């Protein structure tokens, strides 16, 4: 079946620190992979996506590479800002219409 | 602007009462979804619909009901059978059957029990 395992939080970093949030997946076939961000009291927004192996998704300084050999899609950012404080969700979509989400990782960036 | 609207933003339910959460989209998407989010937890799928007049149960459908009479609307009813309804409810939509397409989310409805 399909599932996503995401790094447990919460994560607290100082401004300008390097961020990695780990995500691994189990899937049948060739899923697409997504990272979403959720700010307090809001819905989720797409941050980036990758639809095939070795693709790199990027947006707002965040990056993630679709690694089929390690079934991973780790999120990275070289220098976080206070405004990046949010909850981050890794997700996959297989051949159907269902999406499978990780449990979310809360990030707090302190000045 | 295209998007998903959810109303109300906050909803209060009394014991034994059914309440309905609204979800409307003008993105012309075929598929729509309802998720429940509890504090510090991920998203759990309640129901989803791939086309009008069709819907499937998700992981936690007990105590909830839905309808899909129009493409743009997918209301969720929280029935009195749902004993612990306090949560943040998120509606989403996506283009059907294209695995490269993302989901778009509404702003959410927070349901509280009086």
Q: What does the model show?
A:
- The complex is a heterodimer of chains A (111) and B (114).
- Chain A is mainly β.
- In chain A, 0% of the residues lie in helices and 51% in strands.
- Chain A contains no helices and twelve strands.
- In chain A, the strands form three sheets. In chain A, strands 2, 5, 6, 10, 11 and 12 form a six-stranded mixed sheet that branches. Chain A has a four-stranded antiparallel sheet with strand order 3-9-8-7, with no helix packed on it.
- Chain A is globular.
- The termini of chain A are far apart.
- Chain B is mainly β and 114 residues long.
- Chain B is built from no helices and eleven strands.
- Chain B has strands at residues 4-7, 10-13, 19-25, 31-37, 43-51, 54-57, 64-66, 76-78, 87-94, 104-105, 109-113.
- In chain B, the strands form two sheets. In chain B, strands 2, 4, 5, 6, 9, 10 and 11 form a seven-stranded mixed sheet that branches.
- In chain B, strand 5 (43-51) and strand 6 (54-57) form a beta hairpin.
- The relative contact order of chain B is 0.33.
- Chains A and B meet through strand 5 and strand 6 of A and strand 5, strand 9 and strand 10 of B.
Per DSSP E runs of 2 or more residues, the count of β-strands of chain B stands at 11
Low-confidence stretches of chain A: none
Radius of gyration of chain A: 13 Å
- In the predicted model, the low-confidence regions of chain B spanning at least 5 consecutive residues are none
Mean pLDDT of chain A: 94
Distance between the termini of chain A: 42 Å
What is the ordering of alpha helices and beta strands of chain A?
A: EEEEEEEEEEEE
Gyration radius of chain B (Cα, Å) is 13 Å
Number of helices of chain B: 0
> What profile does the largest beta sheet of chain A have?
6 strands, mixed
The helix fraction of chain A, in percent, is under 10%
General shape of chain B: globular
Choose one word for the global shape of chain A.
Answer: globular
For the residues shown, what is the average pLDDT of chain B?
93
Q: Beta fraction of the residues of chain B? A: over 45%
> Tell me about the biggest sheet of chain B?
7 strands, mixed
Oligomer: heterodimer
Of all chain pairs, the largest interface belongs to: A-B, 26 and 27 residues
């Amino acid at each position: 079946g399909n599932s996503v395992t995401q790094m447990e939080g919460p994560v607290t970093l100082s401004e300008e620190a390097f961020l990695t949030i780990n995500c691994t997946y189990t899937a049948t076939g060739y899923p697409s992979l997504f990272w979403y961000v959720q700010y307090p009291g809001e819905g989720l927004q797409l941050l980036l996506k990758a639809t095939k192996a070795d693709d790199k998704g990027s947006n707002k300084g965040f990056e993630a590479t679709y690694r089929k050999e390690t079934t991973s899609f780790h999120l990275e950012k070289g220098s976080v800002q206070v405004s990046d404080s949010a909850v981050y969700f890794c997700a996959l979509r297989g051949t159907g219409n269902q999406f499978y989400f990780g449990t979310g990782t809360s990030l707090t960036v302190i000045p | 602007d295209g998007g998903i609207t959810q109303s109300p933003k906050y909803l209060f339910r009394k014991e034994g009462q059914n309440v309905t959460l609204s979800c409307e989209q003008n993105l012309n998407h075929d598929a729509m979804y309802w998720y429940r989010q509890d504090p510090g937890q991920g998203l759990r799928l309640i129901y989803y619909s791939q086309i009008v007049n069709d819907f499937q149960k998700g992981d936690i459908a007990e105590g909830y009901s839905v309808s899909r009479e129009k493409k743009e609307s997918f209301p969720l009813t929280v029935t009195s059978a749902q004993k612990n309804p306090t949560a943040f409810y998120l509606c989403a939509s996506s283009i059907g059957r294209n695995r490269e397409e993302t989901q778009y989310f509404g702003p959410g409805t927070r349901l509280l029990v009086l």
